[in-house]
Structures
1.
Amino acid sequence: MGEFVVRGGRRLNGAVRINGAKNASLPIMAASLLTTRPVIIRDIPLIRDVLVMIEVLRSLGAKVEHHDRTLVIDTSHVQQYRVPDALMQEMRASVFVMGPLLARLGRAEIVQPGGCAIGDRPIDLHLRGFEALGAKVSGNPSGTVVAADHLVGADIHLTFPSVGATENLIMAAALAHGETRIRNAAMEPEVVDLAQFLERMGVTVRGAGTPEIRVIGRGDLGGADHTVIPDRIETATFALAVAATGGTVQIDNCEPDHLPGLWGYLSEIGCDIVQDNDSVTLIAPDAYAPHSLTVHTGPYPGFATDIQAQFMALLLKVPGIHVVSERVFESRLGHAAEFRRLGAHIVADQRVAIVYGGEVMYAGRVRAQDLRAGAALVIAGLQPSGETFIANREVIERGYENLDGRLRGLGADIISV
Ligand code: EPZ
């Protein structure tokens, strides 16, 4: 397992370009299974999870050409309906192929997707939605099977606005007979991007980005040529890295409006933010006046759970008593223990952390438990002088392309070993 080695205490200055969104790319790649025509997906990030999804599609019989940030996917010869266990276990997001396979082939099989560092992550909402569309769901120790001769549009009420369930059900409904309504649907921008991709293929999707989505299925879909939206979580990660170290950075190719709440908190503690179309310039002070914040995560447009850890890394620098409440996943505060190894004073249980910001931070040895917590540890390591070693670098690189190189481009002293 590799490490990032960060020598902190340096301001960040310069400009960085945001890549296409990981969490839009993965469901859109899976949606290519819905049509026999080739699709083109542009501005794909060059990250491990995208490579795994390419392997998943190829294992099902798809032809995938990968030219830099553009994918050309042809699923006309797909016959296989079982995701290889090793790939399913490597990447939970492989679950996104269930809806398209069920709709296209009438069957999908996956080994139970494992939980991960942030929670059990069941797929009951996905499965109940498939049953509403007319599928039979059966499970056994070797996995879950969903099958249907044909799918019929239904009225589906989600008990939680699950992003993955919303996306899987939109995709299944795309080939169902008649109209499907998904109520209490997730409203994340990545859901909207998937809907736009499906509309380009000829599916009628109404209400994406609102709590009620209507899908009118049709039998034969066309191809599509689609550019993925910028990665809002990557945008926030770079913004928080600047806010935690001081300096001025222009963040290009981003959608600031996809991060409700973040910019308000940053200006509240004393950062200046200049927004200009698809770029944001963040001017961060070297130090913050005492100021206590309370943040709780929630489904979009709430404060994104995927930036909670990175935000906590910034709070370590802001003098005050901060409350961070994680309301989306049941155990997504593991990074608090790692921050403590760098001198942080944090009291946390599974869902709520009290952060005593402004304490002296030290360099040290920490370990990335999941993608976003790992990025947060990089932000924490950028603060104190001295060398911080962040183990399990590979888990960070699943979702961030060339993170160390791009931070070096802004003046950070960080290397991969
Ligand atoms: C997506 O995961 C993202 N992943 C996650 O990003 C993100 O944190 C999450 O949405 C929330 O925004 C991708 O898009 C690839 P959920 P997903 O279904 O779809 C519970 C990252 O770092 N739930 O909205 O798995 C679940 O346990 C990743 O990029 C059920 O109970 O998230 C969780 O507590 C991490 N039953 C909550 O809902 C279900 O059937 C939110 O999960 C489904 C979910």
2.
Amino acid sequence: MPRSLTENPRWYQTAVFYEVFIRGFFDSNGDGIGDLRGLIDKLDYLEWLGVDCLWLLPFYSSPMRDGGYDIGNYEEVDAAYGAREDLIKLVDEAHARGIRIIADLVMNHTSDQHIWFQESRSSGDNPKADWYIWRDDDSGWPEARIIFTDVEQSNWAWDSERQQYYWHRFYSHQPDLNYDNPEVVEAMLSIVKLWLDTGLDGFRLDAVPYLYQRDGTSGENLPETHAFLRRLRSEIDARYPGRVLLAEANQWPTDLVDYFGSSDECHMCFHFPLMPRMFMAVRREQRLPITEILAQTPELPDGCQWGLFLRNHDELTLEMVSDEDRDFMYAEYGADPRMKRHLGISRRLAPLVENSRPLAELLHAMLFSLPGSPVLYYGDELMMGDNVYLGDRDAVRTPMQWTPDRNGGFSRADFAQLYLPPLMDPVYGYQAVNVEAEYRDQGSFLHWVQKMLSVRRRHEVFGLGSIEILAVDNPSVLAFIRSYYPESSLAVKDSENFAGNLEGDDASQISTSLDFREDSKEGEERCVLCIFNLSRFAQPASLDLARFKERQVTELLGRVPFPDIQEGDYRITLGPHGFYWFSIT
Ligand code: NOJ
Ligand code: CA
């Protein structure tokens, strides 16, 4: 049955996101570059996979010196990707399949090729002279850190045309816009509207912490930046209800939550500090890195949601860890110097876990059940590999592997014409790892992800529930309870009458299919116990579940009844990197 778009304006709280690098997804016209029509061709696949919202990396016209994050013209789709009409068609076709689409929006900076910058640099008194930040010397704002430390020496760059320095937080070919100029604010708000008018469902806001600078500060998370975000949000709420703003703010939890404001800034923020700690926890085989950061994570304001991720198009960033933990991560995951990029590790998920299927499953099971909306990165559902011999972050941006045919089925262009070579090594190459093969193989990781997402979709507690970390005697075991009691069910909760929940469910029936069992009712679990073994060896665990005495425990994927909770001390054994999702009813 085709899915349709939910009308719930808070759809993003229960959605699963999928990040698409258009350039690398599917090439419809054989020029070696993925494009919007190619993505339209693959929507059926994404619908089958069960994702709810695509996040498109920047598609605007660009010299492509930073994957399109160097915008040359905000008003045009890059010719290699198609045209505005193609985007509108993509949005319509996706919506028809129940899939929403958000686009990356780079507000902080443009390319130095942008016509605004060309004008701005031409003299000190042209109409756009103050659209960027110009100074006679490069001594200003020394407290602001350099983000791309491995390639940039300063946040100031000399422009020989204007004979002045301009400010940039990323590459020197990406000058920062001057948000103290009200014309820049207005120009950006009209660009937002221009694209929302195509039917897009919102934006991932690139590099939001850096919009303003003030003397004596780090130039991050300033009150002026938050005021601008409130303005942006109110304009969107007024004209475009149901759209979402997802902030890319690589910050510590206490600064991060400020991007939700009082539910009047961004609807979502990526949880940057949690991500590296999931990798740390499985390597140390200890839950502490995860539980520590969750303890430091403030409550979400109403209507907000975390964006959770394992990998994305950038390096696995290590900005939000201590120096000691960064050394540990480099030693464990990035030993080869070619893997280090900026302040992180440019590798895909599968090579990071040494192609271990149980470990990839464990990490995804955590991703799908921790509080937030999961954001998948294209190709990770196949356990695709990377190519550390490519420059910058291209290691993780190679073509999607569709088939074992030429160019991995990504493009009919000559190999030499491809924007990047597809993987061809014996382990991760397209002949071994591709959608066609994994789709045919019911036991593949692709099918496992698809099934997990279908289970997750049936239980809104994963998107909406609170979390309580449980004390477990074994430090290698992470356990938490997710609970969600919608307003309408509070009467049931008060009387503690959960008995009816599983009525009619014949859990003893043995399924011969490899599929997880279908639920008899939708969204019935209001209390789910999630338990993970972070160690590569089998582990016992004892949980204090006294307050759930006499409740029924049912494994969620197979609907298999486990022993009821008796006097509180509940004993479980988990296989290597094993996990359970239990409903407690
Ligand atoms: C964050 C993006 O994710 C990254 O790819 C880009 O290089 C920087 N912002 C600069 O725009
Ligand atoms: Ca193309």
3.
Amino acid sequence: MEEQARKRVFSGVQPTGKVTLGNYLGAIRNWQPLQEQYDCIYCVVDLHSLTVTQVPAELRKNTMELVALYIACGIDPTKSTLFIQSHVHEHAELAWILDTIAYVGELNRMTQFKDKSRKHADNINMGLMNYPVLMASDILLYNADYIPVGKDQVQHVELTRDVAQRFNARYSDTFVVPQTLINKSGQSIKSLQDPSAKMSKSDPNDNALISLNDDADTIRRKLRRAVTDSDTCVRHGADKPAITNLLNIYTLCSGVSMSDAEKSFEGKGYGEFKDAVADAVISVVSPIQAEQKRLLADKAYLEGVLKTGAEQASYIASKTLAKVYRKVGLIPRVR
Ligand code: TYM
């Protein structure tokens, strides 16, 4: 296996629906500091979005908005590779090869597949089941070492590891076996309406999530409406899932530690606490929104970033795919 000078990081977000505060705190926010230490590749995974029916014009709009959001969140295209998944055809091609390695049984057991099958009972398409194999392909094409994701994606990274190890055992050492990078406090931001469920882009109840597109008034209103726990005390703990979630959001957005936060809200009511959470969230989200808006107005710049990103990604991906084709016994095309 070829040794890279720096360890490599790969991650992505689907341009589906609204990007939530959960996506930001659990994933995107953690990507920026990694740029200094690692060779980072960040992808807008548009092919994954197709597993749920999309309105084509909306998918295009969401995709460009997400590209701008990555940059607004601190992803520097001169330090990291930033690209759109469908611009690099090797993702879909490697997924086919990996399909012959992954087992139906293991894909059938994926929690997200089961969840989404329940939610989209009228459209349990093959792509929905195959989704983790495409994700494995994203990761393995770049021989990524570390995958910064939220908790809900850990099972998919585990599957990626299994597929990589199985391929390596069958065809000799080819893929790096990746590891998950998790930010403990942000790994699972919960729904504002049901702290037993994760905050999800696809939640039909808009009050359950904070979208990175929400304006300040909307953020404040949603946090004021957030469910709370039985007593009136602002502290974290297993018996206080709703307040723990709000405290997590507060500490992550304000930088105040959990113990200092608990101390500062001692003897204060939920109303005052929720307003402080709203202030902290708004102070994080507002500058990102302003920068995203500025970037979206500069189409030429974004297109330039995407062109360079796709070229950089293709260079690595084409080498990996050629190697894989050779190893499995496909004859290289004569040019
Ligand atoms: P997606 O688009 O559902 O979510 C993007 C990232 O956000 C994290 N996340 C959360 N973190 C904390 N709390 C939450 N409530 C929350 N909701 C979402 C997710 O864990 C994820 O890190 N399959 C992936 C995208 C993908 C990918 C990849 C990721 C495709 N290929 C390769 C890493 C590497 C997905 O659907 O994420």
4.
Amino acid sequence: MIYRKALLYEAPFFCTFAAMKKLYIETYGCQMNFADSEVVAAILKDQYTLTDDVHDADLILINTCSIRDKAEQRIHKRLRELEALKKKHRALQVGLLGCMAERMKEELFETEPILNFIAGPDAYRKLPELIAQSAAGETQFNVLLSEEETYDNIMPVRYDLNGVSAFVSIMRGCNNFCTYCVVPYTRGRERSRSPQTILHEVEQLLNDGYKEVTLLGQNVNSYQWEDKTFAKLMAAVAEMSPDLRVRFATSHPKDISDELLETIARYDNICKYIHLPVQSGSNEVLKRMNRVYTREYYLERVRKIKDLMPDCAISTDIIAGFCGETEEDHQQTLSIMREVGYEYAYMFKYSERSGTMSAKRFKDDIPDEVKTRRLEEIIALQGELSLISNKRDIGKTFRVLIEGVSKRSVDQLYGRNSQNKVIIFPKGDHKIGEYIEVTVNDCTAATLFA
Ligand code: 5AD
Ligand code: SF4
């Protein structure tokens, strides 16, 4: 999963009449959560208009993440801050959505009296009822998980106002039960969305002028609908328009099949970027994590990627300090990072989640100072690897999809190349949503300049 900062948003385009109530949504965590918030906005669009001013809201929804303890602590802190608003505005309703709702269920009402209702990730169609019933006084909750819900007939309300790049959720849930991970418990079993509804959504996005879609799922490459594999679905999306870029996230290494790699290689408009979480470079640790692959298998898949697509960027997720991780295991993680030469990595300290297999079976025995030191070494190494990769791009020309105005200066724009690298370049006469060819002339570890 790729993480983004909490985002506040406004979508004035369905503000139809003044009497409508105002909804403020704040989203934490992975891209799936951001996509879900767009589904929630669609479910409530006949009753609420969106606002980006929390002080103005009649309803506040916090879409939450449970992946690590830190993510949950941040949300508890945010709820504390919102208490003052509730004191001022008696009719204000506050609802908590997403993984924390699923993990803690009604227990949350005790620690967080500000909440009027909570809804798990499969309960969003019930939001209008939960809101109406809790407005009458009693707190409400619905945390039922479903084996079918994919919100397939709901056209999400896109709040990404640059109108260039959209998430399209194609499957939900996870069956992998990596021992450290809470996701299979909070998001339930894997289920795929019908290809017809996915293609219809992409067609609408194309009609609305979007230029890039990211096909999303907890394990996007486990997608299966009758005989349609993820590779076939992605090919069908790529064939809709040569001007549409196709990305995907997140892949499990076990499902990164030859068929999928050959499909990515075959289509120019499928981006040459694969997020392939390795988690650890040590076979012992991988086994305890229940990742179901070995270091050797993973490296063979990386070789296959590079053979088929020498220009393909690879990023990863890494956990430092998993239960029983020795110094030697940690060195193996550093060495696999060097061997792959990742373009980018999301790096975390292991955080024990109650109810998971690792919490039940293993001891969280790596002292925090050791986890911190190992994480720092991993981050420092990734900094070097990103810089090496970016320096190799100096002098190369890339096709970039322009996404916005650079934060550094209004005279500069930014976009990403196929490899998902951010490139900043002078504005000239160019506009957001256009493709442009640029030649890289400088870089940092995080950004290319052209
Ligand atoms: N502790 C630390 N990191 C975790 N992740 C998942 N669960 C945990 C945990 N308990 C990381 C993994 C995963 C990413 C989304 O979050 O690296 O790929
Ligand atoms: Fe969690 Fe593993 Fe499923 Fe990813 S594949 S969501 S890390 S259980």
